[in-house]
Amino acid sequence: MMFTVDEYRHELWREVTERAQDHDIYDQEAFFETACEILRDSEAIAAYHPAYTRYRMGTPQALAIDGYDQDAFEMDESIVVIACDDKFTLAENDALPTIQSNECKRYFNAMRRFVVAALNSTYQAHAEESSETFEFAQFIHEHRSTISRVRLYFITDREYTGRDDSSQIQIDRYAKDNGDNKISLETHIWDIRRLMESFNAGLIEHMSIALENGLPAVKASKGNENMDTYLLFVSGTMLSKWYRKYGSKLMEANVRSFLSMRGKVNKGIRQTLNEKPDRFVAYNNGLTATASYVETNEKGWITRLDDLQIVNGGQTTASIFYTEQKDKTDLSQVIIPVKLVVVHEDVARELVPYISRFTNSQNKVAEADFSSNSEYQVELERLSRATLTPPLPGTIQTHWYYERARGQYESERNRLDSAARRAFEKANPSRQRIKMVEAPKYLMCWDNQPQVASLGLQKCFAKFVNSQGDNASAKLDADFYKRLVCKKIIFDTVYKHIKHTDWFLGAYQSNIAEYAVAKYSQDLKRKGTECNFSAIWHRQSIDPKMLGCLLKAGQQASQVLNDPRRPVQNVSEWAKKDQCWTGLKRYPSCLDADPVELAVEKPKHASRRRTSTSSSTSTPRHEAISEKQPAADENLIHDWRNLTTESYRRLYDFALGKAFLSPKSEASLTALINGRDDSINVNSLNHLVSLCVKTGFPLSSLSSRSGEVPTDESVPSSADVHEPSYREFLLSIPDKKTGAP
After folding, report:
1. 203 near 290, Cβ under 8 Å?
2. How far is CA 721 from the centre of its chain?
3. Per-residue pLDDT reduced to its tens digit, 719-728
4. Rounded to whole angstroms, what are the CA distances from 639 to 443, 674, 690, 703?
5. What percentage of the chain has pLDDT greater than the value 90?
């Protein structure tokens, strides 16, 4: 079923609100996660990590970032920065709003300033070291000499009506290491229409390569009506140019999961390229690639390639590119043989994985079939359709839907008529969906490998599949699938409750959950006790005692992950190390923890509506989907909104000393100190004030504003190094409009 824009907005609204409700998060956060999953599934990004920062939006000093993809650096030495539209207007019945080029450019400029400040290390000098944004900025600075390009993604639920120049690659004027190399800067607008097109396509982001002069090719005699095969030769200069422009998008997804190509130049290839480039065609096996369409001229030469994917030879391609970069090698004499298989769209999903597998038969990548059509995945899908949840009071029996292919759930649901669709949704609730790439994370955590789970979904999936034996599918049965569901319930429950604890520092929630589950499982094994999965399955939830133990394990994990003595400064990278897991295993058992009551589930439709329903007004990031905050929160809001600037300073000092400040609460509190309300996150401030009051902060005794008007010069009294120098460094960042998008 192909959606119109209005129909897709309704579907996106449904998915965002359900995610916000199920995960107990706010609408803007749910939109960020939902949209990033679309980008990830479309192969535009490899992974995503939240890292929220807003500073002086609407001014020439604005900074903006909602998240990033650090995994892209390992693929093609690129850095990905993601920002979402703050004028979040998504609602069920809103008219389709629009956004023009100038407003998009403001976000791109704000993202670019963040990157420049990170490269210069001026951002890190004044940011909170425990924040995810700080660590990403530090990563950028540490790898500044090898970053080849920066990709900026702006995501909006509005329709872009400006000139379509979002795919143009621009060269930033910022020179690295005072050398001649420049950083390639790409800007990508993902508006509601582009999100819809990606959803409708169900394939990787469309890519078309034009060959002005044509490329000589020999077409094989007709042998299969579903595909055409060509033999051709490309120059090293041309292949390097393609890789520079498209990076890891050229690599077939399953192979890419295994390749960490950054800096890994094959010595033999490098030597041949530098010493005997004219012999490369004789020494190298060449590439195997697929495409969805080719255009040829009257000579039979190829003039256009659509959706080119290198399924064998990714390492060769990367090595050619990096040799040229590092050694300034002349690639004009280098020729690479290519076997190109043009696969018709209707059979591409089935045939491309097999082409990838059999052409990679000489290496370990090919030992497992990673496609959604493998026996293992098909059997898991069959088990999910055959396994009903136990009957619970007041509920119907349902399925935990295993989605072995991208968009399978939506595709199956949307092809039904209204009555059948409602029946499908009741039998297969969207929150009871397990995606193929997510399942290994739950299994790896429970099997005491949180460092593997922390590698990211794609790499974790690859590691898991590679660890399975030849007859892995034969070991699958209904009990295995029930335990998989239970492990997802355990993970999701601890993940949801972490942010409500007084020890959570506001970052790395997913890493903490991964390590908490692994630690709990490890402690059970040490005690010689098994988890009662049967009880979890029949309750479809965990009990308070288990939650208490998991949260104690989570607190231990947080201490290890955020330990200032850790050998790896970046927490995300530290979580990927065996040493990190070894450190957590030394902690005492978590099984003696006190029970913790589970958060009460909201009624089905309690959080469907946003407080603001006007499409013409800006919905700030902090606005919840819930119609009304609890009374206690309303009192807190009243209390902190009526404080004086000096009281805000005192609150800042107190929270700083207790290490309570998260990136969002610090930005919000600084905004209040400066008399602004453009960067306030109500939820994070309520949580911060609650923590401070519980630990002795005298909120009720502080004086009210009494008509005081705070000035922009107001700063935290114990943090003079923060605001004045922070403003100076922001003002010092060049606007460079000519180099910005």
Report:
1. no
2. 33
3. 333 333 444 4
4. 45, 18, 11, 10
5. 26
Backbone φ, ψ for residue 388 (5° rounding): -100, 145
Map tokens 């020999």 to a residue: 218
Rounded Cα distance between 702 and 641, Å, is 12
Separation of alpha carbons 129 and 507, rounded Å: 11
Closest CA to 516 of 541, 534, 498: 498
pLDDT of residue 360: 52
**Measured distance CA(355)–CA(461) in Å, rounded:** 20
Tens of pLDDT, residue by residue over 571-581, are 888 999 999 99
Q: What is the mean pLDDT of the chain?
A: 77
**Cβ atoms of residues 217 and 224 within 8 Å:** no
Radius of gyration of the chain (CA): 27
Question: Contact 353/371 with Cβ under 8 angstroms?
Answer: yes
Q: Do strands 98-99 and 159-160 pair parallel, antiparallel, or not at all (unpaired)?
A: parallel
Structure tokens at 548: 């208490």
By residue count, the chain amounts to: 741
Coil, helix or strand at residue 76: helix
What is the token pair recorded at 70? 């650090």
Query: Nearest 5 degrees, angle CA 724-CA 727-CA 142?
Result: 110
Burial of residue 103 (CB within 10 Å: 0-12, 13-18, 19+) is middle
Tally DSSP H helices, then E strands, for the chain. 29, 18
Measured distance between the N- and C-terminal CA atoms of the chain, rounded to whole angstroms: 36
